Amino acid sequence: MVNQVQHDMLVKRTHDEEARQEYYVDIRRHLARNVAGGNRAVYAKVVKPNFLKEHGREPATRSEVRAVMTRNPYYQMYSAMQRHTQEMTWDSVIDSVERQLPDLADRAKRISGRSGGTLTLDPGFKVPPYLTFYDIHLQPGGYHTSLSGDDVSAGALYERATFMYSMGNLGPHGDYLGRSLVEHFKKRFPHIKPKRILDMGCTVGQSTLAWAEAFPDAEIHAIDVGESVLRYAHARAEGLGIKVHYAQKNAEDTGYPDGWFDVVLSHIIMHETATPAVPRIYAESLRLLRDGGVTMHMDNPRLKELPPFDAFLAEWEVHNNNEKFGGTYREMDLVSVAHKAGFSEGNATLEMIPFIAPPTVMNYTTKGFAFPCLVGVK
What's the pLDDT at 361? Predict the structure, then answer.
């Protein structure tokens, strides 16, 4: 696994905490490399033949695959291990965070203002209910919880734990998603030199900073619903010497002026919203763009384009890792939704964004990987 870049806000670990966290990463790696593949063998040799014998055909949908695979002992073992490893990941990091909560808050205050960025929080802000019904990705308290007026714990927990969750596949800075989208934007729209960029659902700002570094002359704005993750994101960027304007806002209704941005984007956040929210976010993106501006909303692979068994595997997070809207979102006709939100015919497309991580850091696959992205032009 690549080494995570150390910075002023990253939670510090004792020797034992580090060893415990590395152990859980090794379990995740073992599951990915040596156990997950057994599900395909079990399906091909046992589950599918039994289904064919009973029904006279192969399973036609991921739901049919799920109905029979979840009764198989091998899959049950794999799924239970995967779920427990996710829970243990959060548990191992939260101990480090809670041990140094006052110090983390003090660090954030000392760093604030160092690089010229800003942080705007809304005391009356209401977090959308689809983000409070359950803890997304099983993160204790979700991404939205703030424990006090200077709390940064959700952000500290998120950055370290998601590095472990991805086994370092998102890079030392955790910004490979942002870098992937930046590269596609530059190739797709070489004529656009953005002056103002908005990142929706920024969490701790890892992908945001990829855009700030790629376009150093642009004014970078980033929004999220969570106070704690925003405080952390602001301090993180300030400590890294990068100027970003963070604000607590709902992507469905940001309050920014019409036509204020050249680029409006998001990185893997749409599947954590809800069916009514998607067209609202698309419509808001359109409103915020200047004429000729571009919106790009990158997210997880589409399910309906996968064979039933592969779609079943891809949906594990929906049923076991609190991504309840993930399956529904990945079957939505996003281009049609964008048209209904106001984008004209031909100005909304679904494009594939190649993931730029070098093969040496990829633990799940050595093959190329790409993310679908709704691209809209005003």
Answer: 57
For residue 366, what pLDDT is reported? Answer: 46
CA distances from residue 338 to 112, 296, 325, 341, 370 in whole angstroms, order as listed? 38, 11, 18, 5, 21
- As given in the structure block, the two tokens for residue 312 are 């079943």
Strands 289-298 and 261-267: parallel
Query: What are the residues facing 219 on neighbouring strands?
Result: 196
**For residues 287 and 260, is the Cβ–Cβ distance under 8 A?**
no
> What's the pLDDT at 38?
98
* Helix 153-165, helix 15-30: angle, nearest 10: 40
pTM over 0.70: yes
- H or E element in which residue 362 lies: none
* Distance between CA atoms of residues 143 and 136, nearest Å: 7
In three-state secondary structure terms, 208 is helix
Angle of the 206-214 helix axis to the 227-239 helix axis, nearest 10: 40
Task: Identify the structural domains of the chain with CATH numbers, from first to last.
Answer: 1-378 (3.40.50.150)
DSSP assignment of 131-193, as one string?
Answer: GTSS-GGG-TTTTT---STT--HHHHHHHHHHHHHTTTTT-TTS-HHHHHHHHHHHHH-TT--
Residues 97, 53: Cα–Cα separation, whole Å: 53
Instruction: Using 70 as the pLDDT threshold, list the residues of the chain that sit under it.
Output: 1, 358-368
Give the total residue count for the chain.
Answer: 378
The pLDDT score that the predictor gives to residue 282 is 99
Query: Is 88 within 8 Å of 28 (Cβ atoms)?
Result: no
